[in-house]
Write a structure and sequence with these properties.
Elements lengths: L1 H10 L2 H5 L1 H30 L5 H12 L12 H40 L14 E4 L3 H12 L4 E5 L2 H9 L4 E3 L5 H6 L7 E4 L3 H12 L6 E4 L6 H7 L3 E3 L1 H13 L7 E6 L2 E7 L10 H4 L1 H5 L2 E7 L2 E3 L12 E6 L1 H11 L8 E4 L3 H12 L4 E5 L12 E2 L5 H7 L6 E4 L4 H14 L4 E6 L5 H7 L3 E4 H14 L11 E6 L9 H4 L1 H5 L2 E6 L7 E2 L12 E6 L1 H10 L3
Parallel strand pairs: 1-2, 1-4, 2-3, 4-5, 5-6, 12-13, 12-15, 13-14, 15-16, 16-17
Antiparallel strand pairs: 7-8, 8-11, 9-10, 9-11, 18-21, 19-20, 19-21
Helix pairs in contact: 3-4, 3-5, 4-5, 6-19, 11-15
């Protein structure tokens, strides 16, 4: 059945799928023609020969006549009836026996056969191929990664062992290799020894096999996504350079954003001594003040390069008011971040975080809060076999009674992390209704549900796919930090040659792309120039550190390819 389904899916792709509308229109025309002949049959039988037949009998006679199966039980006996029968039979031969089969062959069968004959799966790369990224295992995470690689113009190849998936990805425009990922001969043909990096996104046992096979051939760096945290050490022993426990990272970051207690800025990314960090405005003395009144740069040296609120990222100016719901994105050194902690201090008031969902991500979030320590309550319908460190309240979180009994009225933060986005949207909406002031951090299993979660009332949404892609992208760049916040890209680019000698204002980077310059890296300086003024001259050899959305990063790559 799986093979039949795959063949049917293959059949309905490409040109055949485009012709499906034409087939539906033609079949509709045939149906109308048959119904018309059936009605005319009843009318002529009654008017010419005085015999009355039901519509079903007329339908039966029309089908028999049009398919030339012959007559027997129902026939005309008058000459006008003979003429009508002749017209029906000839139209049946033309429309049913000639045009319909011809259309099926030319519009569907022939393109399908042509596609099958034309497709020759690539099983080896040319010998000159080098500095490419090999991706084993294609899902939402690696799909998001490919968009980042395309923006940076890094060549990549997706490796598939399934023929139907290879065809589908090639039709989408991806470069695909078809073969067994753990076969040494196939890996040699994939030029693993000349690859820039290998991304292993299969199951943990398959990743282990792949790492051991690659290590028997070469020392190409390998990054693996780990399904279970305890398998990370085994994958490193097998030869992986990075074993990324994505679920633990997601849980930790959900917990960081859910708590309103404390003033420890969360470091997102590092560029040498320059660090990009974020801090919730709530529970700081800056809440409700304008940026000028807060005097953050004067007191700490940190630059506020952005505000993140309800899925919207903005670049603030001196008059921007710091909403308690917002998150400040900061740029500076570690010493300046420590100075910020001295300014904000540690919040002594009680904090309580509810965690809805006791899977691996919920367990990781609970472990992080436990170490801070921040009080939390786990809620799930059933105990989790993957988390024995924490005891959950057994109940249905979609019930307002369960949420009230668990203390949602007193909670400062809420983490929504089930495996079902529809449930996450419902829980977000229900929780916002029960406690309008609570900080809600929600997990999106699919990128397309991020906007719905924000619409339901989430303060922050973390997408599995975009977070995983950002981590893998930072691994490829060899950054000190391997995490980037959801929806914001901080990225490094060399200064385009056509901008040398211009000021930042003259370059029009922000009007053309939407990106903002976070810092300028200079060859003759140890530290980058953070948030340079518009009149700063762009000199040859400088590096740009920019911030913007994925779409704005794409705009930059498109406008300044040179």
């Amino acid at each position: 059945m799986k093979t039949l389904a795959a063949e049917l899916a293959f059949f309905l792709r490409g040109q055949a799928r485009q012709n499906l509308k034409l087939l539906i229109l033609y079949c509709t025309f045939l149906l109308i023609l048959v119904l018309t002949y059936s009605a005319l049959f009843r009318f002529l039988m009654w008017q010419l020969e005085g015999r009355e037949y039901s519509f079903l009998a007329g339908l039966y006679w029309t089908v028999v006549a049009m398919t030339t199966l012959g007559y027997g039980d129902i026939t005309f006996t008058t000459e006008p009836g003979y003429l009508f029968s002749t017209i029906v039979t000839i139209s049946g031969v033309i429309f049913m026996l000639i045009l319909l089969p011809f259309g099926m062959i030319s519009l569907f069968l022939a393109p399908w056969i042509e596609q099958r004959l034309r497709y020759r799966p690539t099983v080896a790369l040319p010998e000159e191929t080098r500095d490419h990224v090999l991706i084993f295992g294609f899902d939402a995470v690696t799909r998001a990664l490919t968009r980042k690689l395309q923006n940076r113009q890094i060549p990549f190849i997706v490796v598939c062992s399934d023929h139907a998936q290879a065809v589908r990805l090639e039709e989408e425009g991806f470069r695909v290799l078809l073969g067994i990922p753990t076969d040494a001969q196939f890996l040699k043909g994939a030029r693993v020894q000349a690859a820039r990096h290998i991304i292993a996104n299969l199951s943990d046992p398959e990743n282990t096999n792949l790492c051991l096979t690659v290590r028997s051939l070469c020392e190409t760096p390998i990054a693996t996504l780990v399904g279970q945290l305890e398998h990370g050490e085994l994958l490193r022993l097998a030869g992986a350079n990075q074993a990324i426990a994505l679920k633990r990272i997601l849980g930790r970051y959900l917990a960081t954003r859910a708590t309103t207690r404390g003033a420890l800025a969360h470091v997102l990314d590092s560029f040498g001594r320059l660090q990009i960090a974020e801090i919730p405005v709530q529970a700081t003395p800056f809440a409700g003040q304008t940026l000028a009144e807060a005097r953050i740069r004067q007191r700490t040296g940190l630059a506020v390069i952005g505000l993140w609120e309800r899925g919207r990222f903005t670049t603030p100016d001196a008059a921007t008011r710091l909403s308690p719901k917002a998150l400040m994105v900061l740029a500076g050194t570690r010493e300046q971040l420590e100075a910020l902690e001295m300014v904000t201090g540690e919040e002594e008031s009680d904090d309580l975080v509810l965690i809805l969902g006791h899977g691996r991500i919920g367990c990781a979030a609970a472990s992080f809060l436990d170490r801070r320590p921040v009080p939390f309550i786990l809620i799930d319908k059933q105990p989790s076999p993957d988390c024995l460190d924490h005891v959950a309240v057994i109940g249905d979180a979609t019930s307002p009674h369960v949420l009230r009994e668990s203390g949602i009225d007193q909670a400062k933060g809420l983490i929504v992390t089930t495996n079902d986005d529809s449930i996450n949207i419902f829980l977000t909406l229900a929780s916002r209704h029960l406690n309008p002031s609570i900080r809600i951090v929600a997990r999106a299993n699919r990128e397309e549900n991020v906007d719905q979660l924000y619409a339901a009332g989430a303060d922050f949404v973390i997408s599995n796919a975009s977070v995983g892609a950002s981590i893998l992208n930072n691994v490829l760049e060899g950054k000190e930090s391997i995490f980037l916040t959801e929806g914001i890209n901080v990225f490094r680019r060399p200064l385009p040659p056509n901008l040398v000698g211009q000021t930042i204002a003259e370059s029009r980077i922000r009007p053309l792309t939407g990106c903002s310059i976070v810092a300028l890296e200079r060859e003759d300086a140890e530290e980058p120039l953070v948030v340079p003024p518009p009149e700063t001259l762009l000199e040859k050899g400088m590096g740009l550190i920019l911030i913007g959305s994925p779409e704005q990063e794409e705009n930059f790559s498109r406008n300044f390819r040179g």
